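Handoff note, outgoing to incoming analyst
You'll be picking up this chain. Sequence as last confirmed:
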Amino acid sequence: MPWAPAGRMEFSAGCERPARTPSHPHAPSADPEHPTMAGRRFNVLVLVDDGPLSKQIDTTLRRCAFVARHGYARRAEDVLRKLPKGWDLLLIDPATTDLDLDPLLRSLAGQSRCPDLGLLTPDPDADLGAVMSLCHSCDMQVLGSLPAPFTDQQLNGLLHPAPPPVPSFTPVAAPPVPLDAAQIRQGLRSDAVAVAFQPQLFSKGGKLRAVEAFLRWRDPSGAIQPPVTVLPIAERCGLLPAINDQVLARAVKQLADWHAKGLSLRLCVKMPAPMLHGKETVEALMTLLEDASVKPSDIILHIESLPPDRSLVPVQQKTLSDLHDDGFLLSALCPIIIPNDFMLSRLSRVVFDEYRIDFRLAQSGTLSHSLMQSTRRFVTAVRDASKLAVAQNLESDADYQIAIDAGVDVVQGFYVSKPLFPAEFEAWHRASVAVS
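Most recent structure output, in case you need it:
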């Protein structure tokens, strides 16, 4: 079933698309007459080797009206010594001589007032993947990268990013009100759990591969509420397993109905790591599938909170191995958009059949060429491990094109389709077949 991208999608309440953080926390209010001079002024510290580059940067910073003061550091020790003086932005040239970024970033992350980071790239073709990966692993926010030397306009763009485009969907009038534990328990007894299904497509040919199940909650009035109104409280109150069981049961029953109608597809369901309890987990799943006449090979278990660079506890290892031996397909998320070499080297050592890369985790400062290079590295490592590469949360034509050009095997996200209720999915499928 070939598929053509639908372009910008309409988003409804409850779909798995949180707003991306669009701007720097220090961004000032707009001043139409002097956009680069509006709001506060910044203190900028630059970590760079002494030489012509530092002199060019100094010249630029001196003429920037939105820079209150600036300073220089030649070594990591200088940065840590100068931190108490209050810096808003730290610009780092990763190529600085004798610079060990790992201990520096971890020391910065532990500071009570940590500056935001910007990366200098004297070489326009430099791959920032390893540096960005290290920053993510240290929980450091990277605003973006600048050429070196840079202009005052380019620095202004880093500090004062343009506002995001106005979304095409109608915003919710008021934020959803979280349910309490009593309401969730009552909902579990009164059939409040509903399931929406998001299509997964093979990148080559656009054929339907599977649908992934997502929780929806139907309140007493019949209105559909987003998962955020339910899941945080349910997790704190120990009700998450009961919700997961109902989502799984309804999704498997729907898959059986679709198979009976002649639709050939698999079902992907989330399986939180704490629910891998050993033999009882395997037996419960097998009983559920036998009752619905569904084969384990038609089920993809998306194991949450189990990135491939972390060791599994023995009971989880045994449970995953037993599930895999019984025919279930196992899926794991690569936890950061730019995987490091250590993580990629471990892909073939565990029992997962596929690995996912999440485009929603790409920050606004990630350059498209860096994202492309990192996605290609990810796909190459997955292929070398004889696994399947899945790109999820593709939200734009740019996301989709990067995933396709990088050679991922499976695509999923709002750019393909939002999560759909069963009748909506069947209509979407019929329309796709008609187009093909």
